Amino acid sequence: MDYENTAKKILQRVGGKDNVINLVHCMTRLRFTLKDESIVDDEAVKKTKGVMGIMKKGGQYQIIIGNDVGNVFNELNKLGNFSNEVKEVPAKSNEKKNIFTMLMDTISGIMAPVIPAIIGAAMIKVLLTLLPMIGVLSTNGQTYQLLSVIGDGAFFFMPVLIAISASKKFGTNMYYAASIALIMLHPNLITLMNTAHDAGQTVKFLKYIPVTYASYSYSVIPIILAVYSLRYVERFVDKITPVVTKNFLKPMLVVLIEAPIALIILGPLGAICGNGLSTVVYAIHDKLGFIAIGLVAGVYPFVVMAGMHHAFTPIKLGMIATTGYENFICIGELCSNMAQGAASLAVALRSKNKDFKQIAGSSAFSALFAGITEPVLYGVTLRLKRPMLGACIGGAVGGLVGGFFQMKCFGIATLIIGFEDIVDEDDDLDFVEESNAQLLDNEISITSPVEGKVIPLTEVKDPTFSQEILGKGAAIIPEKGVVYAPFDGKVDAVFETGHALGLVSEDGVELLVHVGIDTVNLKGKHFTPKKKSGDTMKKGDILLEFDIDKIKADGYDVTTPIIISNTEQFAKVKACEDKVVTKESKLLSVQ
């Protein structure tokens, strides 16, 4: 990719550098804050070489680049010298935002740049689980201890990573934010708090102000709150300090004011909530029995987000030491972790984005093998929201089942769950849904449902098809206005406007026949369906008739994409090499 040329075209098509307020990027996307999004040529941006797609969300104009995003970002900065700190953009008065959605988007946006470090550390922890099991590495050796430090570093010092990311999100000074995180993780502070806690005492600031006992390593929410408040502290200090003293007085006052706020007010909120939560959940268990395990499993991802899951560790260990087992929190955690991992694995299998497929796959691996769900939570399910809901429901159901059958945990360790690994698109095997398909060893030929000239999908003048977002296939410029059944099976769906059909073969192949581009705007004119949803069909049956000349006369392209909509369920999908096809010709093959 010519990064410089791509950057120039992107900048031109988003309205030029004068239309850019600021520019940041995450793992795969350029994130513009623009003065006026209405002047942006969306289609031109999408068609720019190197651009995989666009998304408008949270006041940002996001351009999906992929792994090369950093290089394009650097070239854009050379062209415009843009601010790389996120500025607040007033929301439009008619824009409605759900508070929960805003919170999830904020946390997800902050965590996105941190994901590579978390995934790297998580995979090292997976190795630390697997290598001793196969006898390659001793848990008593120094190599194991060093690898343990390497694998745990990103998690233990996660508040520092999050502080850096949050500073960009909230528009605060990155180094102030990192300094606050380092203060919260300073060894002397940890020692001071632990010593006082073990002695049953409370640390006091200025002799009278109590500092609640808390551990901030591995946590997320406390540092986000601290960095959010930091921007207001910065503004306040900036107003009260004379210009001549700003170089030395302002930094001192910012840290001197913000650190106590973080340590005394915002940071302990997580610990207070955690202690209260521990008391509440066991009280709930006493009242609700196995139902409580399902509730814990369902809400556990949010407990992890708050960094409160570590509050349960001493309770679990104490319960195991006293009774020999723990039958509540551990079971809920296990079910939640498995559900998060399964959700991420499902995303890896279904996603059409190769980069995101890799992220979801590795995240699922760490969750299922090592019980580390942060990469899944912040990199996959929280970002997509629906998988998050599915994981919560799945965890809750698993918890109910585990509780009903009285599962017990006799020790806290990583549980290895076997599952089939994710394979590449070029491999000979792939996963399939049991509901409507099976892995096919033999090739299945699909005859053409339309007669005419065959062209590659890439030549279709619609990015949804040309980019194979819906799946692989081919396209036909029809010479006859008839759609035939390409195989024996069922008409799964006939769109109300009649311009598209969803077909399912007896072998589980799902085929989408979309007559024309944007022909949905015809609202059914010139289309005459011969079958309805749910009807069975035999190969060669007439399913739909359409008037080619009238469609063209109304100004519409009659090019007809033929898509295998469940492409991900097959190892290979191949289009024929014929230039012209009839209803008897082979158009596609799947294996």
From TrEMBL:
Keywords: Cell membrane, Kinase, Membrane, Phosphotransferase system, Sugar transport, Transferase, Transmembrane, Transmembrane helix, Transport. Signal peptide: none annotated. Residues 4-86 form the PTS EIIB type-1 domain. SUPFAM superfamilies: Duplicated hybrid motif, Glucose permease domain IIB. Residues 105-472 form the PTS EIIC type-1 domain. It is a multi-pass membrane protein. It comes from the Bacteria. Pfam families: PTS_EIIA_1, PTS_EIIB, PTS_EIIC. Residues 462-566 form the PTS EIIA type-1 domain. CDD domains: PTS_IIB_glc. The active site is at C26 (phosphocysteine intermediate). The chain crosses the membrane at residues 102-124, 144-162, 174-193, 213-233, 253-284, 290-312, 359-381, 387-405. It is found in: Cell membrane. This is PTS transporter subunit EIIC.
